[in-house]
Amino acid sequence: MADPMRIRAQAAGDKATVRVLMSHEMETGQRKDSSGKVIPAWFIQDVTASLNGKQVLSAEWGPSVAKNPFLQFNIKGAKAGDKVSISWTDNRGEKRTDEATVS
Predict the structure, then answer these.
(1) pLDDT one-digit tens code per residue, 16-27
(2) DSSP characters for 22-88?
């Protein structure tokens, strides 16, 4: 399983800014290794974010997203103490979910 995501969620007024650093190789399937063989595609396909169990973001990614992708977004109505959960699924079926508390 992949390393945990680094999630920071900070409230400011009536919204919270969420920053997520995901640990993932994100191979496009177009590079070759030292012996000339194509490295198989391996990338995050689906990303979802929830605030206190209610989905607030859904994204579909492709192979051209950078290694260890960074995602930042705002959630209206979030306040200190709320729980933010981020989940992803890659094209090999691997999944990861982590959560943080809004500060």
Answers:
(1) 999 999 999 999
(2) -----B-S--B-TTSPBPPPB-EEEEEEEETTEEEEEEE--TTSPSS-EEEEEEET--TT-EEEEEE
